[in-house]
Amino acid sequence: MTDKMATLTIGDNVYEFPVLSGTVGPDVIDIRSLYAKTGCFTYDPGFTSTAACDSTITYIDGDKGELLYRGYPIDELAEKSHYLEVCYLLLYGELPTEAQMIDFESRVTRHTMINEQMQFFFRGFRRDAHPMAVVCGVVGAMAAFYHDSLDISDPEQREIASVRMIAKMPTIAAMAYKYSIGQPFVYPRNELDYAANFLHMCFSVPAEKYEVNPILSRAMDRIFTLHADHEQNASTSTVRLSGSSDANPFACIAAGVACLWGPAHGGANEAALNMLRQIGSVDRIPEYVARAKDKNDPFRLMGFGHRVYKNYDPRAKVMQETAHEVLGLLGVENNETLKVAQALEKIALEDEYFVERKLYPNVDFYSGIILDAIGFPTSMFTAIFALSRTVGWIAQWKEMIGDPQKKIGRPRQLYQGQGSRPYVGVDGRG
Ligand code: SDX
Hints:
Number of helices: 18
Number of strands: 6
Helix content: 40-55%
Bound molecules: s-citryldethia Coenzyme A
Distance between the termini: 59 Å
Oligomer: single chain
Structural class: mainly alpha
Largest sheet: 3 strands, antiparallel
Strand order of the largest sheet: 1-2-3
Order of helices and strands: EEEHEEEHHHHHHHHHHHHHHHHH
Shape: globular
Strand content: 5-15%
Low-confidence stretches: none
Radius of gyration: 23 Å
């Protein structure tokens, strides 16, 4: 409970509401009784000042540019951990012992294949379908195949559905890629680690031997870790809202995939690389910076700005270091796109418009440069983001389902439409 109270005065009436404190971060005003007491709603389009839940999974300090997964700083996890260990941490709250890691890795590995019948579902799409359209459809279709993990009231079934999602997303994303380039699907190879298996399913072909490059595999694994979870962002909030109606886990994750696709959210990595390529050279940067500042021009610097970070996104810092490392190791360090990105970042961070609005590069600004160097087309970037974020969506969904305060999410509105009026026949109109 709390001894701090917030006082609200409406007209002649004074109301008091408890102020709750978390472990770290801003206090919240508990307004659950506001409507009953005052007959008023709060008004917060875009939820800029609204906490929709309490959570113990991820914490962001936007002013410090800090991101913690279960308390561990993202830069330490990116350097010292690996994605499947981060999945365990996000799902169960603690870093695994060696035995727990072996068991978890074995459970995930045993679920990497998808039901053989699902390949025909893929074949219903046009070959030029965007991979996110395919991933969104196939993830939702999992509810048509895995009937033994749909009952959200059964903790066992929730656990199986969680492991299945984490295990199968790389297979589904890789199949969407293969389908888009007219190559045969490649089955997972369980002797490979999570990131290597994904690269193998994307880039190997039956006609020849394929060895996963360890540099690329390590970079891939780090990208997965950097994208794994991020508090109550738009797609995670979509998953929670879907889950609040007791929809099955596959339907909830498909809803998250759909929301992530937007260029204002996870689709920004694809849009950012396309923007850097459109700029093309350092001398054209001023033209685009001017467009980004022009209120009459819808153009924005993709990969820049963030609702929460008003400092450098810590993931972007690790991503930039990784881009340098991977391009250097691949012998393509004089990559023109990276040069444009770095020059654009420097110019923007010295420009009053961006400084005033605290607009910094976010996770999507450099990730595309690495994914491009690894060999992915831009159309696959957001599908890779979705693959990485699946564990975060699942962890948040499980937390919500297990919350004794769980209620169906049902926001209200400020109605600005017509008041009640009688029907008018067609002769009386116009
Ligand atoms: C992700 O929420 C998360 O955690 C998301 C994410 C995750 O891990 O889940 O971090 C992943 O989605 C990262 C963000 C990727 N999106 C982009 O890079 C797209 C470009 N960025 C913007 O669209 C924007 O910055 C948002 C959507 C990210 C944030 O928008 P907000 O918080 O609603 O801020 P806003 O749109 O109200 O902008 C505030 C001001 C405005 O100017 P004024 O009206 O005050 O004059 O900043 C300007 C905006 O015009 N602005 C930009 C800009 N971003 C904001 N101007 C130019 N270029 C930009 N990129």
